[in-house]
Write a structure and sequence with these properties.
190 residues, alpha+beta, five-stranded antiparallel β-sheet, four-stranded antiparallel β-sheet
């Protein structure tokens, strides 16, 4: 089973984040089929991608997740639109203000890594860059499509979307033809 751990934004904030992608997509110069957009209900902050695991490992991960219980709800602010991939963007995302909420996300990830190490997972080797994915640039996107996507993202206005973060979840991800299907296996209230 393919697993990851997410932090969830409030429903109202998810609506606002989803509308950012809608505004990008509606720009007259934006390539119509250049991006595979994330569905609103699938938007989240990935705290840790675990990848393919044996189903028997899921309870251990859920136990580690429960160690985050009662760590305290906190607020974050979505303030920017960006992309990964430089001149060849492959992911469009929204990112967070570098404030107390950002620091709390970093601490939450660190505490999660410590809890996961207690059930046999190695520390994540990647730098944690909290974001919410808006969409993934399609492989067949041309260089002019990618240039238009880069321009749209660079010209996106600053954002100010506030949200609380009050829970984390262990999520199973099934990759299907119509996009990923997510099933929350365990939820921990912060």
């Amino acid at each position: 089973m393919r697993l990851f751990i997410e932090a969830a934004l409030e429903p109202r904030a998810l609506d606002d984040v989803w509308s950012v992608g809608e505004r990008l997509r509606r720009q007259p110069t934006f390539p119509v089929n250049g991006v595979r957009w994330v569905k609103r209900e699938a938007m989240h902050i990935t705290l840790r991608f675990l990848g393919e695991l044996e189903p028997a490992r899921a309870p251990d991960v859920a136990d580690a997740l429960s160690e985050l219980r009662n760590s305290g709800r906190f607020a974050v602010r979505v303030v920017e639109v960006g992309s990964f991939g430089g001149r060849r963007p492959h992911v469009a995302w929204v990112g967070f203000a570098r404030d107390d909420g950002f620091d709390r996300l970093q601490t939450l990830r660190q505490r999660l890594d410590e809890a996961l190490s207690g059930v046999g997972f190695e520390a994540a080797g990647d730098a944690f860059r909290p974001h919410v994915t808006l969409g993934r640039v399609r492989r067949q996107a041309t260089s002019s499509d990618r240039a238009a996507i880069r321009t749209a993202i660079a010209n996106a206005p600053p954002l100010d979307i506030a949200s609380g973060v009050d829970r984390v979840a262990l999520v199973e991800s099934r990759l299907l033809r119509g996009g990923p299907q997510y099933r929350r296996l365990a939820i921990t209230e912060l």
